[in-house]
Amino acid sequence: MTLLSKTNFLTCLDCAKNAWLKIHKPDIYRKYPLSSFELNIIDTGNQIDELARGLFPNGVLVESRDDTEQTKKLMTDKTAVIYQPVFSTEKFITASDIFVWNSATNLYDLYEVKSSTSSEEGGGRKTEDYLIDIAFQKNILNDLGIEIGTLNLIRLNKEYVRIGDINLKGLFIIEDVTNQANEKLEEVKQKMEGVYELLVSDKEPAGHCDCILKGWNSHCTTSEYSNPDLPEYPVHAIARITKKKLTELVDNNILSIHDVPSDFELSDNQRRQVDTAQSDKEYIDSAGISEFLETMKYPLAFLDYETYPSAIPKYSGHKPYQQIPFQFSLHVINSYGDELTHCDFIYTEQGCPDKYFAEALQKHLPKIGSVIVWSQRFEKSINEQLGEGLPEYKAFMEEVNDRVVDLIIPFFGKTTMYDHPKFKGSASIKYVLPALVPHLSYKNMHIQEGGTASDTWNRIVSGEYSKEERDMKIQALKDYCHLDTLAMVEIWKVLNNSKYNKSN
């Protein structure tokens, strides 16, 4: 490694050994490819970077990510707007997003573009999360003796509603974070030096990576390589385990869930998970399951949606990252033992799918009975969104939400009613289904998870496929969504059978 980039610096702060492997053993790092969801995040970030340049039009782009000479010339010429200017010292290199010449101060102002929203309540990230990023850039500029004016953060405005063409000044919010970032300079400077010394070394960091003290879902790209002694079912998979408890277990060399002591303090659900794993037997609360099933009213409509979260609003009336429902699958059973019927809907034409989606749902959904979903918060929020955007369907969507029963409750409610060693602490249908209904599986599907489904639809409507590929992708989407609702039906059948078993 010759120069430490901002990207590698931030990667190292998250997991030091992962960053070292990325630089010194790239074959190991690339062994674990990015998912469609992760690739879509990168594409989205690039699109937003380019769009934000429209706030400061007619700038000059530094094409190469290491062209410091062009950057120097553009700055010497006092070029009004520079996109992706590059700066490097003997140790560090960075590319800023936008430099804008301020004639009032005779200095360039720095603008950092992020693809998140500005509203924390709406799922956005805190301003604090980006100060290290900006301070890294400012430290390099300081080392080069380049005086800068203001330091600014550009993010999407969660409250912006598109009407007609995109209004960039409405879509983006610009926040002056000069003072906050400057307060971070010394702290970040010390971290930069430490990270550089670590990553410039040819000696691989010994032992586990930082993820050994993180929950299972937060492990880095190369965790499998760095933590080879982790068993198939580690303590990291204990649901909602705190860092304090995880650290205590790891410090005592307790890495397998099968080795967790009986007197180790856990929540009731965590203890249930551990006991189930250690006994290798299902836990079934037949009374609780029976009571839950009695909340369902026939006909039962098993319903699943697929959506696309468009960061840049695709259609009028939409906000940043508003989920676009483009597909549903519906399995209906009129009474226990009756034949199952199925219908589906997918919109792959130009224009907004909202009205077509709502119209098809109203046409095919039974007028009475329970609507069964997996994790109701998602489907209910889509229904509310459709009702707000389409007043003529508001009453219908409210009525649908009143009928919703969440099938995840026995597996992830306040009190677990059904647990299985193969769930491994997850209530995802991708874990529950193969454990309870092993003859059904997502493994051989062309599309195996929601991130790929979402990305595939966006590419279809963006015209990225040939007609033959398009038809194949549409069928793959139908097959995937169909399995989601069929899976719920089969899991519901298992619950019906289990309610006659004695509680363990």
Write up this protein:
This protein has 504 residues and is of the alpha/beta class. It has 3 domains: 4-200, Alpha-Beta Complex (Lambda Exonuclease, Chain A); 210-271, no CATH class; 289-498, Nucleotidyltransferase, domain 5 (2-Layer Sandwich), CATH 3.30.420. The protein contains 20 helices and 16 strands. The protein has helices spanning 6-14, 16-24, 26-30, 36-52, 68-76, 128-143, 168-171, 178-183, 185-200, 223-226, 243-251, 268-279, 286-293, 354-364, 376-389, 394-402, 409-412, 429-436, 450-461, 467-498; strands at residues 4-5, 60-61, 81-83, 86-88, 92-95, 98-102, 107-117, 148-156, 172-176, 283-284, 300-310, 322-333, 341-346, 371-373, 404-406, 418-419. Strands 2-3-6-7-8-9 form a 6-stranded mixed sheet. Strands 13-12-11-14-15 form a 5-stranded mixed sheet, with helices on both faces. Strand 12 (322-333) and strand 13 (341-346) form a beta hairpin.
